[in-house]
DNA sequence: ACAGAAATGAACACAAACGAACAAGTATCC
DNA sequence: GGATACTTGTTCGTTTGTGTTCATTTCTGT
């Protein structure tokens, strides 16, 4: 097998699957990973593929929603901390709801390998978990291109039909006085539907959003079972949330 | 074997395979590698081949390996032809259903830029059209990881709620005697639901699938409005399909 | 947060392929 | 018949592609 044929084959596979892995290719093409990596490096130099750690993807796919969700989100360290706390609450066999948004997204990485069922309306979550050990269920309906999620009536309606053990919700603002608030009514209706379907509601909310009210208030604090936030939150404030009846993790 | 004949033979092989190896040619043509290399050098000087280490490739392969790699996938040329015909049937403003499967997928590339609404249960379709000019609507439900699509009860039920102008369906088998057949009941139920919701049903089916029955027969030919296939289909056979009441494009 | 695993790239080694130069064989022309 | 042009094969030093080792980076799981 010469290198031209190999690259040809490589591009074929890539075109069929959208992504390839170095180890797989090395096995299929009867060669070593280093050779595949060199091939990919050449193709990448020409812009025909985009390298990833462990493989490559089509250039089009590289701009995908997952990358979009991953890149340069504000407060990433806090969000990862929050998601680790959240992941610790999950038991194998659980059915979860994962909300769309940058706060909840890092949770996907932490649960890829576990035996779970995840209901979601978020495209990045869907793409991140598709092909993993997790069984994914999608809330259908119209795709909101800006938010990379399904936000319509149908999505909310469908969510109500599922019974989930734990819902992990994001929110735009949260305050003791006015409860949960959002920048969009659509997001709010999805959150409400998911909360209604869940045995326990976890609100994932970094400390910068505490005591912030956004334009649309849609639920009282009592909707939430557990507030998951980061150590940046003042202890006194968290104590007040606890007094209001919430379990608090930080 | 003289010089001219050798070069001719060489170009023939190159045309068939897209690439050649010096060592192989030397063996086949009962000569030594240096001779082949000199031949290739001459052809390369004229631009008829592109030299590589150990062999040569067609110029068009060297120029656009991606396009060439695509052609290598099964029946892809036919599928692209079919999708071009299908795309010509689409009017701006239409709402479409696009089925999952390799036959219908190339349609996405052809409509990315158009003002359309597309309902689908296919993840690759969703992926390809997310972020394009097309408004995407997803049939929700459980994700079938192997088929990269939603195939459950919920998906079928949701599809019935949408009214679409044109449904573009794929199928595993099709015959005059036994109608449409599939390899999976789930796929069949999605196809039926989409067909029921559509004003007009286009069946995209390359000629290799004509008069092939698969294990699960799920609908009569009358479900289909228009059969879109490729020129590889025998004219006499297409005439019979026309007689059976289908519009046929090839 | 931390430790272990996997992937990566650089440096080196080896084999295959390469081109240049030269030698040998064949056809053509005077 | 001998000179010439042309093609083919051989030798040898060089280049190119591939595989191995190892330190480093990146990812993943507890």
Features:
250 residues; 2 domains; Arc Repressor Mutant, subunit A; alpha/beta; 41% helix; homodimer; DNA-binding; 3-stranded antiparallel β-sheet
Q: Strand-and-helix sequence of chain A, N→C?
A: HEHHEEHHHEHEHEEEHEEEHEEEHE
Q: And the CATH topology of the largest domain in chain A?
A: Rossmann fold
Distance between the termini of chain A: 56 Å
Kindly report the average pLDDT value of chain A: 87
Query: Which runs of chain A of at least 5 residues are low in confidence (pLDDT < 50)?
Result: 68-72
Number of helices of chain A: 11
Sum up the overall morphology of chain A in one term. elongated
Give the total of beta strands of chain A.
15
Helix content of chain A: 40-55%
CATH class of the largest domain in chain A: Alpha Beta
Label the structural class of chain A: alpha/beta
As for the number of domains of chain A, it is: 2
Quaternary organisation of the protein chains: homodimer
Sheet with the most strands of chain A? Answer: 7 strands, parallel
Biggest interface reads: A-B, 41 and 39 residues
Which CATH-level-2 architecture of the largest domain in chain A? 3-Layer(aba) Sandwich
Which strand order do you get reading across the main beta sheet of chain A? 6-5-4-9-12-14-15
């Amino acid at each position: 097998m010469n290198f031209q044929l190999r690259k040809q084959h490589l591009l074929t596979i890539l075109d069929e699957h959208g992504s390839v892995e170095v180890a797989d290719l090395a096995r299929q093409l009867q060669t070593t990973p280093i050779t595949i990596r060199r091939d990919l490096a050449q193709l990448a130099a020409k812009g025909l593929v985009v390298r990833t750690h462990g493989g490559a993807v089509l250039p089009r796919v590289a701009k995908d929603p997952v990358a979009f969700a991953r890149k340069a989100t504000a407060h990433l360290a806090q969000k990862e901390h929050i998601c680790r706390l959240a992941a610790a609450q999950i038991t194998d066999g659980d059915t979860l709801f994962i909300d769309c948004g940058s706060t909840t997204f890092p949770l996907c990485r932490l649960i890829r390998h576990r035996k779970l069922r995840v209901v979601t309306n978020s495209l990045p979550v869907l793409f991140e978990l598709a092909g993993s050990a997790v069984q994914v269920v999608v809330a259908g309906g119209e795709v909101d291109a800006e938010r990379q999620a399904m936000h319509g009536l149908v999505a909310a309606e469908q969510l109500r039909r599922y019974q989930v053990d734990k819902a992990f919700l994001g929110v735009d603002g949260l305050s003791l006085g006015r409860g949960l608030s959002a920048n969009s009514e659509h997001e709010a209706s999805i959150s409400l539907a998911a909360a209604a379907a869940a045995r326990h509601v976890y609100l994932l909310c970094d400390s910068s959003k505490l005591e912030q009210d956004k334009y649309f208030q849609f639920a009282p604090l009592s909707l939430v079972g557990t507030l998951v936030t980061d150590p940046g939150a003042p202890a006194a404030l968290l104590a007040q949330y606890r007094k209001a009846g919430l379990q608090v993790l930080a």
